[in-house]
Design goal:
The protein is of the alpha/beta class. 59% of the residues lie in helices and 8% in strands. The structure holds guanosine-5'-triphosphate and magnesium ion. Residues 60-61, 81-82 line the site of magnesium ion.
């Protein structure tokens, strides 16, 4: 059985989560019930917490034993005796959450039949006037949390300023939940008891504590202990009745709200649900244009690097297709990605995105009650207006990996220029031969390759080799461009997928999670 405090918190949670997603009247009614109940029971629920507090040696532990009929608490002449808060609990099981909350370290369960002390938590607190700072902290913590505070005083120190000024007077507002027990009356004559009690009464009245009751007891002889027990019992009964009443209110409010939350299977967004959405977004983000531009840019750069040097400069004259889109420029890490010059999504692409978002919202909200389904769908749509800018930034921020050409480009370029040198040498040699013949001087003897003279081999061979090399390189560059395009497509898809995840899938999941928590809370509250 769930504790009342937990049920109150759960009802409050359901109301909070359901706001704007379920009938407003029912939500507000549930919130009111939770608020009303929590003002009384928020933390102790159906349990009545009674604490015995007071100065060291006043007899708190002795009284604890007298009331509980046990010897659980250690009493003694050495001061202070009790250093840890201890609780006796009447019930069938320990309310551990509550005791944790009260910071009670020692716990004893006393099996209780119904209509007795059932649901009573009686706490023996360390002295408040202790020199041990820790004790004071424990008392201060408890004072705020208990249902009834019994201040145990003795005939010598009942007017002690430390108790009155530090605790009783500041707590005057809680006067009716406090009680002052004058202990050790066995040490006084009857007349002295009367005078002590009327003196104490007058003192409390002067301090604005007229609502605080007093009782004369002796833990040693047992005088007055039954009366004190009765007072505690009354508090227990009252609390139990309040708990029963408020518990019924909570059950009713939860039952009224439950249909608004439905009973269907809890929804979950399939991983595949984002895939169709990503497809549509990739297309709308202009992926095809970018991918084509990447291929073009690679070919342009490759042609310049590996072409035949005498004509390859021409490729520099062509505009870099990536530059035109304002993409692929080297940027520092900290600089935000600028806008691209990609064309806006076409009407068809826009419609595809809208459809994909709608489909995702429909799938995620299938089977949910109306209000929740609407909330899921609007979570899917929420970032629609800013989506184009987000996609553009994602594309602009995608690393297209075009920084450096491969090593073979550089090697090819060096070889090409070496071949140019060979051609120049060959041509110069031939020129020299022509000049010598013109001047009718004997030619420089030149070796022959077969029947062809060396300068001709150099000039013609170098040219042919350069052109052949350029043609083969062009094939290599083309293959490289294809690979770069594929890589760019993958990278863009990844960027776009993360936009889809944060802008659409995450808000939808957050709403589904909210629904799941509301369902769980209504189960606990009901
Ligand atoms: N004569 C008489 N002695 C009492 C009575 N109640 C307690 N004592 C004695 O007073 C001393 C202190 O009692 P405790 O019950 O240990 O006092 P306490 O308030 O728990 O003290 P701390 O744990 O130190 O805060 C013990 O020696 C008890 O026997 C009483 O009603 N009459
Ligand atoms: Mg004690």
């Amino acid at each position: 059985m769930t504790g009342l405090a937990e049920r109150i918190a759960a009802l409050n949670e359901v109301a909070r989560l359901s706001r704007g997603r379920a009938d407003d009247g029912l939500v507000e009614a549930a919130a009111q019930v939770a608020k009303h109940a929590s003002s009384r029971l928020a933390f102790s629920g159906e349990w009545t917490v009674v604490a015995l507090a007071g100065a060291t040696g006043s007899g708190k532990s002795s009284l604890f034993n007298a009331i509980t009929g046990t010897r659980l608490a250690t009493t003694g002449v050495r001061r202070p005796t009790t250093s840890q808060t201890m609780a006796a609990v009447w019930g069938s099981e320990l309310p551990d959450d509550l005791l944790d909350w009260l910071a009670v370290s020692r716990r004893h369960l006393i099996p209780a039949p119904q209509n007795d002390y059932a649901n009573l938590v009686l706490i023996d607190v360390p002295d408040h006037d202790s020199t041990v700072e820790d004790h004071r902290v424990q008392v201060d913590h408890l004072v705020d949390l208990v249902d009834m505070l019994v201040w145990v005083v003795d005939p010598q120190k009942y007017a002690d300023a430390a108790l009155h000024e530090r605790y009783l007077v500041p707590l005057a507002g809680h006067g009716e939940v406090m009680l002052v027990a004058l202990n050790q009356i066995d040490r006084l004559a009857d007349a002295e008891v009367d005078s002590c009690m009327s003196d104490l009464r007058a003192l409390l009245d002067r301090e604005g504590l007229s609502a605080t009751g007093t009782v004369a007891v002796s833990a040693l002889s047992g005088t007055g202990v039954p009366q004190l027990g009765q007072t505690i019992l009354r508090a227990v009964r009252e609390k139990r009745m309040a708990a029963a009443r408020l518990g019924a209110d909570i059950t009713r409010a939860a039952a009224a709200l439950a249909p608004e939350l439905g009973t269907g299977e809890l929804p979950a967004l399939e991983r595949s649900a984002g895939r169709a959405l990503t497809d549509a977004l990739v297309s709308a983000a202009g992926s095809d244009v970018v991918v084509e531009a990447v291929g073009g840019a690679w070919q342009r750069r490759g042609a310049y690097a590996t072409g035949w040097p005498l004509v390859s400069w021409v490729s520099k004259l062509r505009v870099d297709p990536l530059r035109r889109l304002r993409l692929g420029a080297r940027r520092s890490e900290i600089e935000p990605a600028p806008h691209t010059s990609l064309p806006p999504a076409s009407p068809v692409q826009t419609a595809q995105v809208d459809n994909a978002i709608r489909a995702l919202g429909d799938e995620a909200s299938a089977g949910l009650p109306r209000g929740w389904a609407d909330a899921v769908k609007s979570a899917a749509r929420a970032s629609r207006p800013s989506l184009p800018a987000k996609l553009d930034a994602a594309v602009a921020g995608t690393d297209l990996r075009l920084e450096r050409g491969p090593l073979w480009w550089s090697i090819t370029r060096i070889v090409q220029w070496l071949l140019i040198v060979v051609v120049v040498v060959g041509v110069a040699w031939l020129g020299l031969d022509i000049a010598l013949a013109y001047l009718q001087l004997p030619p420089i003897p030149s070796p022959r390759l077969g029947r062809v003279p060396a300068p001709t081999v150099l000039a013609v061979g170098g040219t042919v080799a350069g052109i052949v090399m350029a043609l083969v390189s062009r094939l290599g560059v083309w293959l490289g461009a294809r690979r770069k395009s594929v890589q760019a497509r993958t990278a863009i898809r990844k960027s776009v997928a993360s936009v889809a995840a944060t802008e659409i899938v995450a808000p939808v999941n957050a709403e589904l999670d909210r629904y799941r928590r509301a369902r769980e809370a209504i189960r606990v509250a009901g």
